[in-house]
Amino acid sequence: MSELRIRIFLLAATMAAAAGGCCLADDVPTTQTGETISALDGERQPLLHWSPETAASELTPLLVFLHSWSSDYQQDNSKWLKACAERNWIWMHPNFRGVNQSPKACGSRYARQDVLDSIAFARQRWKVDPQRIYLAGVSGGGHMALLMAGHHPKEFSAVSAWVGPTDLAEWHRFHTKGGEPQKYAVMIEKSLGGAPGTSVGIDADYRDRSSVFHLQRVADLPVSIWAGVEDGHSGSVPIRHSLTAFNAIAAAHGNPLISEAEMSELSTLKRLTSPLTSDQARDQTLGKSILLRRDSGESMITIFDGGHESHPDAAFEWLSTKRHAVTDAPGKSN
Length: 334
What we know:
Distance between the termini: 58 Å
Number of domains: 2
CATH architecture of the largest domain: 3-Layer(aba) Sandwich
């Protein structure tokens, strides 16, 4: 590289850093560390954030992105962060009690409060557009995203959830082999105090932390659910979790459900023998063949030809179309 090109490169890097901390080497922004104090128990929770310079003076969309099951706020979710920064949205990456292996993690009311607190953190610092407060997550983050949608539907403008477990008791059973709990089942037990059926109280906690029992409350909140048909075969979360979650929304809306026969075909044959017209939709940003797509109000589900994976551009494309006013300030988790 010539001396002139080196100088140009360094100047561009300096300008990019001043504009928002982007690293030109990989176009992924450099995040900053922040902290919230729980409105429920006073515990301090770290988070990572990034914002465009204009967020200080202009209404700006906010994306709260949730880390996966076995990780915390330091997880590398750079492809989602990069997609967020490319659109000049504020990025918030909360900890919500870290890895799901302790009682206050795994979708507890304390973890849910941490997500609400992260929104308050953003609204205190930048001009967050109250009609564009978005939530997204993958795997364990998908679990938490749908749980927040069910417990706090008025706090978000839209939610995009990918390949997440939605019924923890069923997921525990899936990861119990020959009577012995495997990795994820063990983590669930550490979080909830035992296996399903241990006690009435523990079973109630399983329901509290499983979105399928709460999604009937989403009302007009737009929720998109995404899953690859191979998940549960080569991945850790069977697609039935996504299908039953969508049915909870559709039932509350009074709309047609995905039938048991269709669920069975997708889970075993990995295709529908009699797909609907909507199931043959095209989605250029997803870049995958669609095997099932259904809508209920502004919510939708997509089962695609893939596995335990996510596609940020498809999520952002969908989220970008949603405007939905939220309350003035996040409340307390129930």
